[in-house]
Specification:
This protein is of the alpha+beta class. The protein folds into two domains: 150 residues, Jelly Rolls (Sandwich); 100 residues, Homeodomain-like (Arc Repressor Mutant, subunit A). Helix content is 44%, strand content 21%. It is built from eleven helices and ten strands. Strands 1-2-9-4-7-10 form a six-stranded antiparallel sheet, with helices on one face. A hairpin with a 2-residue loop joins strand 5 and strand 6. It comes from Halalkalibacter okhensis. InterPro entries: AraC-bd, Homeodomain-like_sf, HTH-like, HTH_AraC, Tscrpt_reg_AraC-type_HTH. GO terms for molecular function: DNA-binding transcription factor activity; sequence-specific DNA binding.
Length: 278
């Protein structure tokens, strides 16, 4: 039976799901999924649909208007759309793609963050692995096999996060972010500024901050603070060094400043953390 959408051809298949209230509350879950073969009549134009859409192109071209941008997705490309925003996409003859609409707790926050930081259009060698996972998921239902909610949750979450994985580079070609991380870790015993780190990697502070946060999930100074706190935790649990000396070793000029930031980040004072059973 053909889906009642223009341009969807025979041989296409699709599946719909109605999650329980428990699943809605606690799990990433499918709303619908499918494998479409389409011609040039295929088009979707919506102002709002309350779910996210993940699409992997297997053949042909899918033209997409979204967030005031136009892209043409081809074989091996991936799209992640927040369908709560206006969107319009349409196909060409020979279009073939697999997709899922999904939802779940904090999925909107996560996917919105990914789209903001990385865009909605992904062209990467890693897409092939995501495409294989999508195919496996959809064809589980095609063969009328069961997939547990824990398995489907893990697959959805893994696929979405895989979109953000940094491309591997040759070991002899460190990126500016890699160089900055090395610089930060080598200078944990003193306070360094954003301008100093950016200068070290020969980038403007604004551009450096942007690419650093995309690759690490941290602002540069936030990353430096994280590493100071992590080092302090290790010293607290593995040595008898005084808290004042630990504060000095991780770049704080006063123990009171160190204690305040440690408590803010960890939820324990350094003394309480030292005595805590891990």
């Amino acid at each position: 039976m053909l889906l009642n959408e223009p341009g969807v051809l025979e041989g296409s298949h699709y599946y719909f799901f109605t999650p329980s209230e428990t699943i809605k509350k606690y799990y990433y879950h499918l709303i619908c999924c499918g494998h479409y073969y389409c011609n040039a009549d295929y088009h979707i134009k919506r102002d709002f649909f309350p779910y996210f859409l993940l699409v992997y192109i297997r053949n042909g071209e899918l033209h997409v208007n979204y967030q005031e941008k136009f892209v043409t997705a081809k074989k091996g490309d991936i799209l992640l759309l927040d369908c709560r925003e206006p969107h319009h996409y349409y196909g060409t003859d020979g279009l073939e793609f697999i997709y899922i609409h999904f939802d779940g707790p904090h999925s909107h926050e996560l996917c919105s963050y990914i789209i903001k930081q990385h865009g909605f259009f992904f062209q990467s060698k890693r897409n092939i692995e995501i495409g294989k996972q999508l195919y496996q998921m959809i064809y589980t239902f095609y063969h009328k096999e069961d997939m547990s909610i824990s398995d489907s949750t893990c697959m959805i979450y893994t696929m979405i996060n895989s979109l953000t994985f940094k491309q591997e580079k040759p070991k002899d070609e460190p990126s500016p972010v890699d160089e900055a991380i090395t610089f930060i870790k080598a200078n944990l015993d003193r306070q360094i500024t954003l301008k100093e780190i950016a200068s070290y990697v020969n980038l403007s502070p604004y551009y450096f901050s942007h690419i650093f946060k995309i690759e690490t999930g941290y602002a540069p100074i936030e990353f430096a603070t994280k590493n100071r706190i992590d080092t302090a935790k290790t010293l607290l649990k593995t040595t008898t060094i005084s808290i004042a000396d630990i504060a000095y070793q991780v770049g704080y000029s006063s123990s009171s400043g160190f204690i305040n930031i440690f408590y803010k980040k960890v939820g324990f004072t350094p003394s309480n953390f030292r005595n805590l059973s891990i």
